[in-house]
Amino acid sequence: YQRRVHGEETEGCFPGDNVQIRVKGIDDDEIHTGFVLCNMKQPIVVCSLFTAQVLLLECKNIVTAGFTCILHLHALSEECVFSQLLCTLDKKTGSILQKNPPFVKGGEPVLMRISTSQAIALEPFKVFSKLGRFMLRDEGKTIGVGVITKAIVE
Questions:
Q1: Radius of gyration of the chain, Cα coordinates, nearest whole angstrom
Q2: DSSP string of 105-124?
Q3: The pLDDT value given to residue 25
């Protein structure tokens, strides 16, 4: 493979460097936004369903299971669906306030299951924070921020 940092071939790189890697046998058109390079001995989790702790910010309406929005995770933007609202949480203690709520409002922290139409590369926040935090956007506005608590591999 070949490594380039800021356009020049190099043997190593440092945090913050813009790195381009070319791997023999893989064309540029085979690599897409959201792909993650990882160690073959410790592959990254790839799934389309995960559990997350989400803080909903200002939303127009109440949010129920089945709500769709855009998930922004590392370099990836993917449409997602709130599959199941598991429980609402206390802001200060993190304790469960209500199990299986029928809806949630803006400003409420909630534990939920989120699904995507295709499998994406992610990790629980406690395993690797950079691949475990995300933003939720709808109609050009940020409606929530969250961390992945569990990847559900089918």
A1: 18
A2: -TT-EEEEEEEEEEEEEE--
A3: 85
